[in-house]
Write a structure and sequence with these properties.
By secondary structure, the protein is an alpha/beta fold. It has helices at 15-28, 33-36, 42-47, 82-93, 113-126, 143-151, 168-171, 177-190, 208-220, 247-260, 280-286; strands at residues 31-32, 52-55, 97-102, 131-135, 156-158, 195-202, 225-230, 264-267. It has one domain: TIM Barrel, CATH 3.20.20. The protein has an eight-stranded mixed β-sheet with strand order 1-2-3-4-5-6-7-8, with helices on both faces.
Length: 299
């Protein structure tokens, strides 16, 4: 078993600030991926007054062996009040950028697309200047559902690749590598103004060549933003860590990604898909894009 290195140590947060965020979440009955997935950056993000909201959860219809979110074959029905409660949290926390993600809801005909749309609309109404990033599941390849989400015009659409193609059967058994790439490709075709984003975990047994192949495949579908982070085993029942990747290797991947044409690459041991997601606003300021596909004003 690989021994956890010093560079993965996380500073203790200031719990007064963390407590303020947790109080808002508890008061409004909201879930965050920060808590449900045991994210190592929870202290830093909560201390900064940010969180990645987890909708339609907390139980997931898939049981990926790397993920700490609970599995449930038949989760509860969607809560129609959830979008309003999420929007209220965004307003109370004065978020400039919000990330909305979800569990997989393979039990729903549209994979939960309508709930994403309702949440986006509610946030637009409550906090018009907040930019919105959605981190979506693969929707079982229901492309009408993808178009539904994009019709709500989020600024960023994120869908994680998670790992290299060879390891999909072991790491993401209900996912499909080609389907992930197709989702990102279709997003670019449907809504060319949206910033597309994807991320992978390393330390699961992949090779450097395989990581570079994922990067090349993502650029082939014109993905804008890439995140690369170290996989950490949430519990003994989850997939073990095969290797702890050095900070130097993460820096090399960042440099390679930038040379390949990604507009933004965030690569470090503690990077997660929504870690420092607000940095996309700098990208928007320097490479602005305007909605052209859908008629009417946003929201």
């Amino acid at each position: 078993m690989a021994v956890k290195p010093d560079w993965l140590r996380v500073k203790a947060p200031q719990w007064e600030r963390v407590g303020n965020v947790k109080a808002v979440l508890q008061d409004l009955g909201l879930n965050t991926v920060c808590e449900e997935a045991s994210c190592p950056n929870i202290g830093e993000c909560f201390q900064a007054g940010t969180a990645t909201f987890l909708i339609m959860g907390p139980a997931c219809t898939r049981a990926c062996p790397y993920c700490d979110i609970d599995f449930e074959k038949k989760p509860k029905a969607l809560d129609p009040t959830e979008p309003l409660r999420l929007a209220e949290a965004v307003k109370r926390m004065a978020l400039k950028h919000v990330v909305i993600t979800s569990v997989n809801r393979d039990d729903l005909p549209d994979g939960g697309a309508s709930q994403f749309v309702a949440c986006i609309a509610a946030v637009r109404k409550a906090s018009a200047n907040t930019t919105i990033e959605v981190l979506i599941p693969d929707l079982c390849g229901i492309w009408d559902a993808l178009e539904t989400i994009l019709s709500a015009q989020p600024e960023v659409l994120n869908h994680n690749t998670e790992t290299v193609s060879r390891l999909y059967r072991r790491v993401r058994p209900q996912g499909d590598y080609a389907r992930t790439l197709e989702l990102l490709k279709r997003t670019r075709a449907i809504a060319p103004w949206v910033y597309t984003k994807s991320g992978i975990m390393v330390g699961l047994g992949e090779t450097d060549d395989e990581v570079q192949q994922v990067m090349a495949d993502l650029r082939q579908v014109d993905c804008d933003i890439l995140t690369i982070g170290q996989y950490l085993q949430p519990s003994p029942k989850h997939l073990p860590v095969q290797a702890f990747v050095t900070p130097g290797q993460f820096a090399r991947w960042q440099q390679q990604g930038e040379q390949m044409g990604f507009l933004q690459v965030v690569s470090s041991p503690l990077t997660r898909s929504s870690y420092h997601a607000e940095q996309v606003q700098d990208l928007m300021a320097h490479s602005p894009r305007n909605p052209t596909t859908f008629d009417g004003d946003r929201g």
